[in-house]
């Protein structure tokens, strides 16, 4: 049975953290740190739910371990990537389009919105944590899919970081390594991570958590991921036109001739 009270506690934890992030943005006059907060929303929701489930089953320990590894890695990477006083260009555009009083509007269009999305997507994590079903094959399939996705996105991020670190690559397109098989291997890996979490939730009979990986996949493909990045990338990197013709957008595949 779905325990709404425990799930709501996760929303409260996320809400308080989002409020802290918004208050920090007022001091910094910069909202970019919300990117670093994104994965921590899930970490908070997971541990808050586990705290009120009053159990320490193998599935709970596995989910908490996996989400911790994923969240800390992503938070550290995004914090390092975005380090500096300047606001990310995406948020500069959002700020410009929502003046006057962006300082107030950012509380709900930036921090509030991301917090609510994270809460909804955390349904898979909650479904796995609140289950008392015995460990079964689906748990192991979910674990393997998570490990694969985590490895894929971590390596992709690392390869992209090395590429961007060289001044010789400015304006060029990365088409080596995992980026040879997909234009967005990091997002593909992230997608696998969340379908892995869903399989673990499904193993615990939380079939209703299907909205979690579906929503994450839609965000990665149509909202903040592939579609957003490729909206104007051809203008900034002309070679991207040829890259599009030879390389799959999301699911990895051999380059086309």
Written description of the protein model:
Helix 2 packs antiparallel against helix 3, helix 2 packs across helix 5 and helix 7 packs antiparallel against helix 8. The N and C termini lie far apart (53 Å). This protein is mainly α. The protein is globular and about 55 Å long. The protein has two domains: 132 residues, no CATH class; 124 residues, no CATH class. 70% of the residues lie in helices and 0% in strands. The longest helix has 29 residues.
Task: Provide tags for this entry.
257 residues; mainly alpha; 70% helix; 0% strand
Alpha-carbon distance between the two ends: 53 Å
What is the helix tally? 12
SSE sequence, one letter per element? HHHHHHHHHHHH
Q: Please summarize the sheet with the most strands.
A: none
Which structural class is indicated by helix and strand composition? mainly alpha
In round numbers, the mean pLDDT is 93
Spans of at least 5 consecutive residues whose pLDDT stays below 50 are: none
Percent of sequence in beta strands: under 5%
Shape: globular
Classify the helix fraction into a percent range.
over 70%
How many domains comprise the coordinates? 2
Radius of gyration: 19 Å
Count of DSSP E strands?
0
Chart the SSEs and their pairings.
Blueprint: H1 4-28, H2 34-53, H3 58-81, H4 89-97, H5 102-121, H6 123-129, H7 137-165, H8 185-203, H9 211-223, H10 226-229, H11 233-236, H12 240-246
Helix pairs in contact: 1-2, 1-5, 2-3, 2-5, 3-7, 6-8, 7-8, 8-9
């Amino acid at each position: 049975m779905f325990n709404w009270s425990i799930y709501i506690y996760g929303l409260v934890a996320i809400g308080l953290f989002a409020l802290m992030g918004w208050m920090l943005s007022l001091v910094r006059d910069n909202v970019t740190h919300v990117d670093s907060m994104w994965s921590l929303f899930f970490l908070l929701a997971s541990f808050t739910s586990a705290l009120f489930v009053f159990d320490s089953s193998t599935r709970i320990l596995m989910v908490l371990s996996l989400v911790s590894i994923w969240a800390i890695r992503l938070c550290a990477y995004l914090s390092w990537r975005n380090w500096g006083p300047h606001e990310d260009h995406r948020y500069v555009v959002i700020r410009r389009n929502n003046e006057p009083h962006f300082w107030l509007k950012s509380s709900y269009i930036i921090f509030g919105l991301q917090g609510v999305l994270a809460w909804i997507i955390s349904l898979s994590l909650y479904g796995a944590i609140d289950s008392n079903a015995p460990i079964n094959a689906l748990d192991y399939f979910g674990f393997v899919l998570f490990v694969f996705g985590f490895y894929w996105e971590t390596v992709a991020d690392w390869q992209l970081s090395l590429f961007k670190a060289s001044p010789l690559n400015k304006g060029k397109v990365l088409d080596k390594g995992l980026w040879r098989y997909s234009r967005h291997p990091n997002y593909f890996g992230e997608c696998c991570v969340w379908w892995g979490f869903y399989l673990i939730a499904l193993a615990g009979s939380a079939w209703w958590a299907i909205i979690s990986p579906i929503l994450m996949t839609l965000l990665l493909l149509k909202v903040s991921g592939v579609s957003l990045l490729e909206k104007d990338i051809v203008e900034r990197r002309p070679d991207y036109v040829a890259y599009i013709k030879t390389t799959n957008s999301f699911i990895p595949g051999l380059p086309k001739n």
